[in-house]
Design brief:
Number of helices of chain B: 5
Domain DUF112 (chain A): 20-438
Largest sheet of chain B: none
Strand order of the largest sheet of chain A: 1-2
Radius of gyration of chain A: 22 Å
Structural class of chain B: mainly alpha
Organism (chain A): Neorhizobium lilium
Strand content of chain B: under 5%
Strand content of chain A: under 5%
Helix content of chain A: over 70%
Keywords (chain A): Membrane, Transmembrane, Transmembrane helix
InterPro entries (chain A): DUF112_TM
Transmembrane segments (chain A): 20-49, 61-82, 109-135, 147-163, 169-187, 316-335, 355-379, 391-411, 417-444, 465-488
Helix content of chain B: 55-70%
Oligomer: heterodimer
Chain lengths: 505, 164
């Protein structure tokens, strides 16, 4: 069957009333939580992971995908109206979008962000559907060596290639890797680092860790900044509709943003932020109105928002075809698959095509739902931003702990939440990135498995890793991704990398 | 959220003690890993690759990073920390600790209500006598939705038992 047939079948599955309902719940929750400042898609998915325990695999994955896309949409609303990006991929949107809102053009800014996200999400999801089968074919020739090399590359790009310090990025990654060791070794059944505590035999719960690292760490950090001036929410004045000129200036930016964002998301090279920065720079260079940049240029919202959503869809390419998460959000989605005993990768396309294609098709539907939810109902979401800080953060912690309690109502788990919340707070104070911890925690055991398989086949000879051309190339790329930024930083050229810091997703 | 982390340009005479503490923690973690896997050494099998292999590598990695951190501490390479308010953090930590201790004896609503109130207090909403009853009622509502409607099992206490 061709991709097209599969996609049609997937659409039929996604159109089932129950699945439509899950998608709707997912996008609504995702938008709602995504709008809240300080919570990005990674936290959103982590918070809502336990809610989906009771559902079947297809339904809950459809809901996740909706949450992921919804979080991306919701984040742009916060950036435009509050100038506090809800997620790191919306930082650029805040640059121009908030200026537009202050100039009374908040409506068109929100509209171009929502429509741009829709266009990008649509094109990128279709691209995902058509590219995935080819990557699956390539991935089938991958052995343990190649997988391990690919994971090393992902580790390096997530932790040290971007951000302001190789040292701190790598330290975060190794903390995640160390935590991933806890529990029963998957190949021999030996328990490691569990110190006789039965709660630790299953390993450290991903949900607990993600909630502690993102939601609790962030809340503590914001609380510790003391009473700052209240953020000003810009009211949406005038029409939300875009004028003819707005459309004329936006559509090319949407397409360019998609073209930039999708490949970056699809490469094992970190989160959605990088694409948004590149798109912003491109629009600034190509614009007929460069003087407007910095004062509310609509292209500066349209391009990055499209890039942001296109790379979100792009991230699903390595996740679904290779089982390789390249961002914290994708890592948590991988944990979502694992809770059903599903391992994303080439085999999933063969063993469970209904699920994969249903998921991809439901992304198209979620995208359409989000357009409807975000344009006419934007006023409703804006109300969320008027919640006073004490109640907002009290509510965030309420839901954060609700997720953990729902997954495992034990005092031990809540203790872990508190402990790692404090660790995450400390890491924020000292400028350590958080995403590498989560990626290390989730990808660590998979990388170890592949490495040990590869080494066992070669009877312990480490050189085997370099004897496969694909693996060797990937490892060389990883080494470059480690060394080049080090050189750049030591020459004082690190600012560019700092700006691209992948801090949350 | 990424924080602005300006680098200290002036060469510091004194080492950065906080960074040294971080390095010490990394060394302790590495030590714990090495100690724990030392009992697994014999399980290597004929390929010499066993459950201890990767943990040891990670431990060596952590030791390397600790040394790097110590070097950074002496060169003053660590970013300047912004001033942190301790009080709000204490309020919130107290809330999380209270929830942890109360959830078994008193159930989800009371424990989480206390967390809610203490967190809000950390952010400046200090009229506890008003917020406690409101928070507990809200939490009871949330408990009802998630436990009874979405069948997520949340610990029940005296209040929840009234609704069942």
């Amino acid at each position: 069957m061709s991709t097209f047939d599969f996609l049609l079948q997937g659409l039929a599955a996604a159109m089932l009333p129950m699945n439509l309902f899950y998608a709707l719940v997912g996008v609504t929750l995702g938008t709602m939580v995504g709008v809240l400042p300080g919570i990005g898609p990674a936290t959103t998915v982590a918070l809502l992971l336990p809610v989906t325990y009771q559902l079947d695999a297809t339904g809950s994955l459809i809901m996740f995908a909706g949450i992921y896309y919804g979080g991306m949409y919701g984040g742009s609303t916060t950036s435009i109206l509050l100038n506090t990006p809800g997620e790191s991929a919306s930082i650029v949107t805040a640059l121009e979008g908030n200026k537009m809102a202050r100039a009374g053009r908040g409506g068109p800014a929100l509209a171009t962000a929502a429509i741009g996200s829709f266009v990008a999400g649509l094109i990128a999801t279709l691209a995902l559907a058509f590219i995935a089968p080819y990557i699956v074919k390539i991935a089938l020739v991958f052995g343990p060596r190649e997988y391990f090399a690919l994971m090393v590359l992902a580790f390096i790009t997530v932790s040290s290639a971007f951000g302001d310090s190789t040292l701190r990025g790598l330290t975060s990654l190794f903390i995640g890797l160390a935590l991933s060791l806890v529990g029963i070794d998957q190949l021999t059944g030996q328990s490691r680092l569990s110190f006789g505590v039965p709660d630790l035999l299953d390993g450290i719960e991903v949900t607990t860790m993600a909630v502690a690292m993102f939601a609790i760490g962030e809340t503590l950090f914001i609380a510790a900044q003391g009473a700052t001036a209240p953020d000003k929410i810009e009211a949406v004045k005038g029409s939300v509709w875009m004028t003819g000129q707005d459309w004329a200036r936006s559509w090319k930016a949407w397409l360019r943003g998609t073209l930039i964002g999708f490949p970056i998301g699809a490469m094992p090279a970190g989160g959605a932020e990088i694409g948004t920065f590149l798109s912003y720079a491109t629009e600034k260079r190509l614009s007929k109105h460069p003087e407007e940049f910095g004062h509310g240029a609509i292209e500066g919202v349209a391009g990055p928002e499209a890039a942001n959503n296109a790379s979100a869809a792009g991230t699903l390419v390595p996740l679904l075809t290779l089982g390789l998460p390249t961002s914290a959000t994708a890592a948590i989605m991988l944990a979502g698959f694992q809770q059903y005993g599903l391992q994303p990768g080439p085999l999933l396309f063969a063993t469970n095509p209904q699920l994969v294609w249903g998921l991809i098709a439901s992304l198209l539907i979620a995208n359409l739902m989000l357009l409807v939810l975000n344009l006419p109902l934007v006023g409703l979401w804006v109300r969320l931003l008027t919640i006073p800080k004490p109640w907002l953060y009290a509510g965030i912690l309420l839901f954060a702990t609700l997720g953990t309690i729902g997954a495992n109502p034990s005092v031990f788990e809540l203790g872990m939440l508190l402990l790692f919340g404090l660790v995450a707070y400390g890491m924020r104070v000292f400028g350590y990135p958080i995403a590498p911890v989560i990626v290390g925690l989730i990808l660590g055991p998979l990388a170890e498995q592949q490495l040990r398989r590869a080494l066992s086949i070669a009877q312990g000879d480490i050189m085997t890793l370099f004897q496969s051309p694909i693996a060797a190339v990937l490892l060389i790329l990883a080494a470059l991704a480690l060394i080049v930024p080090l050189i750049l930083r030591s020459r004082g050229r690190g600012d560019v990398l700092t700006q691209m810091a992948a801090s949350e997703d | 959220m990424s924080v602005d982390t300006p680098k200290t340009n002036s060469v510091q005479r004194r080492p950065d003690w906080a960074a040294l503490v971080i390095a010490a923690i990394l060394l302790i973690v590495a030590g714990v890993i090495l100690f724990d896997v030392s009992r697994l050494r014999d399980v290597g099998g004929y390929s010499q690759v066993g459950p201890a292999t990767v943990p040891s590598w990670i431990a060596y990695g952590l030791i390397g990073l600790a040394i790097w951190t110590i070097a950074a501490a002496f060169r003053g390479d660590f970013p300047v920390r912004e001033k942190q308010e301790v009080k709000p953090v204490v309020w919130i930590v107290a809330g999380l600790a209270a929830q942890m201790l109360l959830i078994r004896p008193l159930g989800f609503s009371i424990a989480t209500g206390v967390l809610f109130v203490l967190t809000a207090a950390g952010f400046g909403a200090r009229r506890i006598w008003i917020s406690i009853p409101i928070a507990i009622v809200i939490c009871l509502g949330i408990w009802w939705v998630f436990d009874q409607v979405l069948s997520l099992s949340l610990p029940a206490g005296p209040l929840e038992n009234l609704l069942q």
